[in-house]
Amino acid sequence: MNAFERIQKKYGHNICRRCINREYHIHLRHSDCQYGNPFPGLCSCCGQPNNLVTGLKVTGRLKLLGK
Predict the structure, then answer these.
(1) What is the full DSSP assignment across the chain?
(2) pLDDT tens digit string along 13-53?
(3) Once rounded to an integer, what is the mean pLDDT over residues 62-66?
């Protein structure tokens, strides 16, 4: 199981980039993430309407290594 799958298992599939950065002390940028829906949804961690991360690109996965 990779790090992003562990994040989704802990918080569900509705988590924003800001919460991932805050919880794991990394600096994901918009270009590191994949977004499934172009419209904001409610984040299950902070409860704010944000773009929800559905996957990570290679650069995002590298930043999560060891976390």
Answers:
(1) --HHHHHHHHH-S--BHHHHHHHHT----GGGEEES-SS-EE-TTT--EEPBEEEE-HHHHHHHTT-
(2) 899 999 999 988 999 999 999 998 888 999 999 999 999 99
(3) 87
Q: Report, in angstroms and rounded to the nearest whole number, the Rg of the chain calculated over CA atoms.
A: 11
Is beta strand 49-50 parallel, antiparallel or unpaired with respect to 41-42? antiparallel
Angle between helices 17-24 and 3-11 (to 10 degrees): 110
33-35 vs 41-42, strand pairing mode: unpaired
